[in-house]
From TrEMBL:
This is Putative mRNA 3-end processing factor. Signal peptide: none annotated. InterPro entries: MBL (IPR050698), RibonucZ/Hydroxyglut_hydro (IPR036866), Xnuc_lig_assoc (IPR026360). It comes from the Bacteria. One of its GO terms (molecular function) is RNA endonuclease activity.
């Protein structure tokens, strides 16, 4: 592939001399979204979407960054760069790169179902498409968001009837904000872990329309949490921080909960298969909609997806990257901003 190459620093456009989501420090980094496996500290200059910018600053510090809107082109050495909605989390973008008639789109992470918060995924016609494959197995077929939110709301209501606190385990950037749409029809007594509060406050101050929540602090009496909802990052489940909420029930919100028994292995009471990634059919439909003649498959079930695409007559190849699977919900540091 001539326009984008795969290097030990990340995806590189030599014509424009920039990297997309580099995993090592570079001079010019174009960022798809602010999750830590795609946005890393140390680069001299960052380009990102306007809604990604405040969270990038929160997580990486006082970086040198340029924030742009979706569809607004930036030119570097004659290479046209533009950002387009990925639907993964707030501000998440696909990167469209065009040079001398060749178009490559780097998806980052994405989902095709509109969630009312992250921007609707936009299929972009291109010659080459670089796609994630986090949930690239036919078993992963998500329920529609309204139905999933109804299930979460009912679980909370049942806990309220039993004077039990409902603790939802969710990644602090993306899932935590999305879940508020399921919680607010049931209660306005919503508490969040400090890591989630930091992200929530930055997004609210930026103008993202999120409901008000309350940060969990040591000064809050235990009785205040009765019948409430608490959103906590994965790492908090193994900490003493949880003790203040007794009696409580926990539910993991992750696409991995699609597999029966996963919530029991994670020592929780319930699991909701709510994912910020495309499911199997979402991946296939997104790839086909690009019309790409060449597809590179990264992080996830690369071999399954690339083999399927090749069998369908779409040339595909696997690529190893340093991107992780944050939706695994097992390793996020509860103290991370």
């Amino acid at each position: 592939m001539s326009l984008i190459s795969f290097t030990d620093h990340g995806l590189y456009c030599s014509a424009g001399d920039f990297y997309i989501d580099p995993w090592r420090p570079v001079n010019h980094a174009v960022i798809t979204h602010a999750h830590s496996d795609h946005a890393r500290w140390g680069s001299a200059h960052y380009l990102c979407h306007a809604d990604t910018f405040p969270v990038l600053r929160l997580r990486l510090g006082n970086i040198n960054a340029q924030a742009i809107a979706w569809g607004d082109p930036v030119y570097k050495n004659g290479v046209k760069i533009s950002l387009h909605p990925a639907g993964h989390i707030i501000g998440s973008s696909q990167i469209r790169v065009e040079y001398k008639g060749e178009i490559c789109v780097i998806s980052g992470d994405y989902k095709t179902e509109a969630d009312g918060l992250s921007g609707n995924f936009e299929a972009i016609r291109c010659h080459t498409f670089i796609t994630e494959s986090t949930f690239a197995l036919p078993i992963y077929q998500w329920e529609a968001q309204p139905k999933m939110f109804d299930s979460i709301g009912q679980w909370i209501s049942n806990n309220q009837q039993n004077n039990t606190v409902s603790i939802l385990i969710a990644y602090s950037l993306g899932k935590a904000q999305r879940l508020l749409q399921a919680i607010t029809p049931v209660t306005d007594r919503i508490f969040v872990h400090g890591a989630i509060w930091n992200t929530h406050k930055v997004l609210q101050d930026h103008g993202i329309p999120l409901p008000n929540v309350q940060r969990v602090t040591p000064e809050i009496p235990k009785s205040s949490f009765n019948r409430s909802v608490v959103i906590a990052p994965p790492g908090a489940t193994e900490s003493n921080w949880m003790k203040k909420f007794h009696p409580y029930k926990t539910a993991v919100c992750s696409g991995w909960m699609q597999v029966r028994g996963n919530f029991r292995r994670n020592n929780t009471d319930a699991g909701f298969a709510l994912s910020d990634h495309a499911d199997w059919q979402g991946l296939i439909s997104a790839i086909e909609a690009t019309g790409a003649s060449k597809v590179f498959v990264t992080h996830g079930f690369q071999s399954v997806l690339s083999r399927y695409l090749n069998e369908k007559g779409i040339e595909a190849a696997e690529v190893k990257t340093a991107y992780g699977e944050e939706d695994l919900l097992l390793t996020e540091n509860p103290d991370e901003a």
